[in-house]
Write a structure and sequence with these properties.
- With 256 residues, this protein is α/β, with parallel strands linked by helices.
- Helix content is 52%, strand content 19%.
- It is built from ten helices and eight strands.
- The strands form two sheets. It has a six-stranded mixed sheet, with helices on both faces. Strands 2-3 form a two-stranded antiparallel ribbon.
- Strand 2 and strand 3 form a beta hairpin.
- The chain binds zinc ion.
């Protein structure tokens, strides 16, 4: 009798370890830009002929905080690379992923184009490619890393691409699908799809991750939709559902 109760206790403890409480996923959320790095910007008209400048860094922080609180409510270990308006270098963001032993890394950005009619949302994962349109987005998002650092790290990046691309692509696909369900028809925004890109913040973080381009700041009509907290909540909900789908598919075990 005594032996069997000890046995039950061991089973119980093992079940506890496997439950979310012990093996909860650690997710690092990365609001793009910040501080002196403002990202894309555009003016929106206010009443009485006044204008207000909207910066990507502020939108990214607002939306990322919505993803943060939704994930937190569900019991995940969630962290932000910045919670205020401050400059954080790509290296520092990546170092946080390492320190926290994050399972997933989600970077939040807003797009910009010289064509003010460009519109829609895109979901990126880390991979090599030679697409000129994608290159423009990369240049904007990679710009605060120095030239020689990029060269030195090329070998590391190639290794990370090999290890994370298939899982990151899966994560990107789930997230993109759920965002699409939540906002595409409701807010009449275009799904530009899941794309491969060479983003150093993803490579340096060395874990499965995606970079979200929520929509175009350069498009005033789209910008007006994106500053709306309801839009941001819906979008955040899509991201959270995509992450949950990914975790359900891949299991709770950490990959690194
Ligand atoms: Zn950006």
């Amino acid at each position: 009798m005594k032996v069997s109760s000890q046995y039950l206790l061991i089973i119980f403890l093992f079940a506890m370890m496997l439950s979310k409480g012990v093996y909860a996923y650690t997710i690092l959320l990365d609001p793009g830009h910040g501080g002196s790095d403002q990202g894309a910007s555009n003016e929106i008209a206010l009443k009485k002929g006044k204008y207000k400048v909207i910066y990507e860094k502020d939108l990214a922080l607002q939306l990322t905080k919505k993803i943060y609180s939704q994930l937190k409510k569900k019991g995940y270990n969630v962290f932000l690379t910045r919670s205020v308006d401050r400059t954080v270098h790509l290296e520092e963001r990546a170092a946080m992923a390492e320190k926290l032993k994050a399972d997933l890394f989600i970077s939040v950005h807003f797009n910009s184009s010289l064509n003010r009619h460009s519109n829609g949302f895109e979901t990126y994962y880390l991979d090599n490619h030679s697409n000129v349109a994608v290159k423009k987005v990369e240049d904007a998002e990679n710009k605060n890393l120095k030239g020689d650092e990029l060269v030195i790290r090329q070998i590391l990046i190639d290794l990370v691409i090999q290890r994370t691309t298939s899982t990151s692509k899966k994560l990107a696909t789930y997230i993109n699908k759920r965002i699409n369900q939540r906002i595409a028809r409701r807010y009449k925004v275009v799904n530009r799809g899941v794309k491969a890109g060479l983003f150093y913040v993803l490579a340096l973080s060395k874990r499965p991750g995606v970079l979200l381009e929520v929509g175009f700041v350069s498009n005033k009509k789209e910008l007006t939709k994106m500053i709306n907290p309801y839009f941001q909540n819906k979008y955040a909900g899509g991201v959270v559902e995509g992450i949950e789908k990914y975790i359900a598919e891949t299991g709770k075990k950490a990959l690194f």
